[in-house]
Amino acid sequence: MARIATLKPSTFHCFRLSSSSSSPSPSSLSFASTPLVLPIRVLTGTRRRPKFPKILAFTSNDIKVGTNIEVDGAPWKVIEFLHVKPGKGAAFVRTTLRNYVTGNTVEKTFRAGAKVEQADIFKETKQYTYKDGGQFVFMDLTNYEEFRLDESYVGDKVKWMKEGMDCNLLFWNGKGPLWSSIEMTLCGRNGFNSWHQVVSAWCHCGLEFTGVGRGVEGCGIVDMHTIIGEVDNEVIGFEVPMNVKLTVVDVDPSAKGDSAQGGSKPATLETGAVVNVPLFIERDEVITVDTETGQYLSRG
């Protein structure tokens, strides 16, 4: 069951829905300067955690491959770097960064010694349990807490995933794209045609109403800035194990060659991935595959 955090009323602004009847009909949005007493729960799908022990005065000189940094409010991983000391001019650090959320890579240059913000990214092992529509569901086996990750975060890693597999979920102690999306939707004041749209948009982002009275009069939506302040850590991605054991479900029977000379043939695995395997590998055998390169490693 998902962990539920209850928000207490405070001095934040709230949305208020008004309607001429108690039936789901087109409504209008107005704003109240005092909090509504209606309790609202947040299905966080996130974890609270002490702040990351950051290195004091972390600068571009400390950048290495694998370093996590924040640039323009987004989390990035350094995949390449080079310290450059030109004959003339100031020294600088040239980097290639990969965005944890979008997967995009960019090149960015930092002045040598410039202050750089570290991204508080940490990993926790969760078990992949099943797929629910466009979401992959993971579970913490210590407390049975569920975490849902949209398939856009998974990408082509799905070809290595099978139910019951332990994966690493990546958490970022900051305001991520999910909250930004909700904030744009609910705080943008674009208007909604019905209270159904408001509740749908709210629940789609992992939030739900509780204690709503008869009809829609008085239903409240907490300002997103308050939610952002309450929820620290957001799931931004995951990692499959570097090596996985998968069963071969199909091989090309017509493939021929000299196995002593290292011949290979394509094999389809239980997850749908296709890898090249030695000629001696047959159907129903279990093999170990490197998920980074997609290469066959060994039997069993």
TrEMBL record:
Compartments reported by the entry: Cytoplasm
GO MF annotations in UniProt: translation elongation factor activity
The keyword tRNA processing is annotated on this UniProt entry: no
UniProt pathway annotation: Protein biosynthesis; polypeptide chain elongation
Gene3D superfamilies attached to this UniProt entry: 2.30.30.30, Nucleic acid-binding proteins
Superkingdom, natural source: Eukaryota
Gene Ontology biological process terms in this record: peptide biosynthetic process
Residues of the Translation elongation factor P/YeiP central domain: 123-178
Keywords from the named record: Cytoplasm, Elongation factor, Protein biosynthesis
Main location: cytoplasm
Pfam families assigned: EFP, EFP_N, Elong-fact-P_C
Keyword Thylakoid: no
Coiled coil spans: none
Similarity comment: family membership: Belongs to the elongation factor P family.
Protein's name according to its UniProt entry: Translation elongation factor P/YeiP central domain-containing protein
